[in-house]
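Question (not urgent): is this output format expected?
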Amino acid sequence: MENNSTRVPLYERLPEIYRIKDQEQQPKDQLKSYLALVEEAFAEIHKNIEALYNDLFIDTCDDWVIPYIGDLLGVSHLKGDPATLRADVAETMALRRRKGTLAGMERLVYNLTRWGVHCRELRENLLWNQHLNHQRPDAGGDPPYSQPGVTRFTPKRGGTVTLRDPAMLSLLDTPFDPFAHVADVKPPAFGCRRYNLPNLAIFLWRLYDYRVTVLQPLPDAPTAVHHNSSASDDEAEFIACFNVHPLGEPVRLFNTYQFDPDCEPPVVTQLDQTPGPILTPRLTGDSDAGAPWKYVSLDTYSPSGAAIDPKDIADTGFQLYLPDTEFDLTGWTVRGANLCAWEEAVYPPVKKREIVIDPVIGRFVVGAETGDKANALIEHLLFTYTYGAVGPVGAHPVSRPSLAAKWSEEGVKTIHVSYQDGTNELIDALDRINVSPYSDSPVQVLIHDSRTYELNIAGVDSSLRVSEGGETSLLLSNSLIIRAADDQRPVIKLKRPLCFRPEKVQGVNAAEQELLDARNEKLTVRLEGLYISRGDQWENDYSSDPQGVPLVARAALNRLEIVGCTLDPGGHKKLDGTRSPIYTSLKLDENYGFPVGTPAEIAIKNAFEEIPDVVIQRSITGPLLIDTPYRLSLIQSIIDAGKGVGDDPAGVFALTNAGDPVNQWGPPMTADGITVFGRVRVEEIDKEGIDDAQGVKGAIFVHPLEVLNHQTGCIKFSYFSGNGDRLPQNHACVKGNEAVLRFVSEIFGQAAYGQLHHTTDFRVRERGPGDDAMGAFGFLMDAHKWRNLQIRFREFMPVGVRPLFIPVT
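Got this back:
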């Protein structure tokens, strides 16, 4: 780990008299020039000395040093994410002192996986009968045999399950099940809890919780406010209805992970502090076992004041910010309910100042005393919510690497965008990209919140756009980066497809053409951290084929990068159980969007000499229809055409040609760790692809992969359907007719979307690149985490205790 502090040059360390004499020499600065020759070598020596010193400590050493420090402590070697290995070695002594304790086991699991964890001795749940002469007051019963706080709803060891409290009953068969069970003597099995004396259950939450902060909920238009004129005294006369998801789609609400690994003394993970789905009955405040304020927080803010301070964001999974002009924080209650049919009625009726939440589909309603207060909620209510996902593939509110100060050897200038009432700052930012002082350098448009932005390229300044081929393109004189700020996930709803092209392609003479070619060789558009979907009028504006009109319809560039984005593929499950249609994400034709009708138009098209590179990294997209002049690189991404394992993929393409999907071929492709739902037809597997990428490795092709030129390229450590494939050379691959492939969910929008099921063939789960999983989430190194856990638990488990690993999510 290098010390980045500024060093004092050798020349500056000399006494002043020597520097004065050096200036008097002819020619001057002879000594300065001499010392400059050894300055670089001198700095490297010091850097090496500092690195050697840093390598003495586990917190600062290089990754390769970790096992050597572990050897000094007698730690057996593990493989996997260096961050987890570093934590494992750093905590060795502390974990040895706590060997066998539940808190020690939880800290061990957290260090090795970063998953949510709860350890529980299953003998505590075994059914037993009390001796009448030696009753246990701590096990329940009526006074005077019970402890304070014990009620008729409290589970009694040896008693029957209480049916009177839905919140308590909802804990049945969860990691915090308080009820008694009969002994289970069957042998251990993956994911099965066996209530027996020697068994220690290790419950694991493998999905990560992502929190979207401070956005405006989507009102249930056109009936956002319901008026109940016959409301009783305690019932709300006006009810404001909201969807959590900014596009109105169902979303499962999660709680945040509130485990503190640095707590001293360590505390075992508590109920209502795990990164799992929120249970509806737990949100009911009038229930004996309900704990709504463990999941929900309330705060007020000034709609006309400054933005909400991040310090005011609570640790709970769901938080509402009420406008202080109409509301205070007194008298509010929370209730969980099923709101699938809220258009008809909410039962029991919503009370005044009551918040009713459906965490299963992501809806909530708020009871208001007056119509003005209900309208204030519609206009000014803000909220924060948490959802679950397998990992950072797609648009998520995560920390992102800082953009380099230079892009294509040019300094980058930034335009900051944040939500303002009545002003579309995203359009305003695009209006300035070709205008001084931004016209002479690459421009970064940085979005600082998670709000929803409407984007219509036709609304950009007329000098910055052009209409060609029926669509409006954004004219670029330099590279453009549109990205989300750290921990934000802005949603961009498009009025029409995104189209990009150079400001000018054809020069009036050879000299100008050479300058244009040199500039266009660097032209890049990068989209990062954005959730891009279709606007509200998309179905009407493109009524002839709304699913076939792509989100990105033109990329006449040197390079298009889509990094950490979700190009909404559709296909989510609706409330009636059916799936929504699949929508095309990219459709790029061989003419790069240039009209080719007249000789002048053909000349302009021919003047564009670039071969565009399309790079999709850690993103989720719908079908990609791309012609062969492009080159495509897919990295740790999901391409979803809406067909799952076992579905007939006939006529359903995830990647193919834009002009003739059935008979022609898509672009040369490289891929590293991708999951593809749908047929793939490409010209070839590129052996010398973009950014030194070669071939395909770690991919899961759920349906047929067809490669026209199968004499070149190579595919390694991948899964094929085994039905209708046309493949080049392949090594260490698995075919569907000899291996089982299952996903926990194949439906976009669900928390476990793209996660491999534990019944999937072990070669798919553990024999991908680096001896880990194939597919889009292989980089999470889950197979290594499982192996490391098993190794460490064999070392740390007390004699006679048997660990049972039970995934919860």
